[in-house]
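User: Hey, my collaborator sent me this sequence without any context and asked if I could get a structure. I don't really work with proteins. Can you help?
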Amino acid sequence: MSNLLRIDYMKPTVKSLISCLLILLVGLFSYKYSEIFQWLGLKTYYGKYIGHKAHAFNLKDYHRGRVSLEDFKGKYLLLTFGFTRCAGVCPLNLENFRNIFKEFQDQSSSKLEFAFVSFDDLRDDATSVKEFVQRSGIKNIYGLLSGPDKALDISHHYKNDIQYEVRKIQEDETYQINHNGFVYLINPKGVLTLIYLQKNLNTQRVVEDILLLIEKEEVLDG
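Assistant: No problem. I've predicted the 3D structure and written it out in structure-token form, which is a compact way to encode the shape of the chain:
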């Protein structure tokens, strides 16, 4: 009888332990993967890993020359979409680009380039895009607009959620276009490697991502 009582007494304890373990596992997997691995001391990426071919584009820069994805072959490219009258994420992304550029000036600047693509064909032109990107002080940044490909179409291929009304843009020079402002990292082989979805981008972590990718590339090439 005592054995039976002991066994019955232990059953809910085992169930409780299993329940606790399940709750813990769910909690861990719902937490940010990068932070878990960082806590464990393992190398991982701050950005969201994608790993498929980046969508090709053929646009024009503010010198009216054509620029395609192929032109960045052999370099890492940080790419973002926006418009020059943007009062929020676009100037913030350029500020982030500038901070990243400063980090790379003394180490791997030849391996990294930047591009800002304006999808606002109604208000942006070569002059406004040139002025916008040159304010960043980045030497190797491209300001791109619609060319053979429409910039808005290209942005959709990069899963940009852009919402606007043409009438409002035509009526109001300051009209703000809703968009996500993601930053994309394309590797030297034209693979969309990482996407940065964070609103408050930690530029030091982005730099660490790029250096880690360069390190892996050098190991493979070696």
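In plain terms: Residues 2-30 form one domain. You can pass these tokens on to your collaborator as they are.
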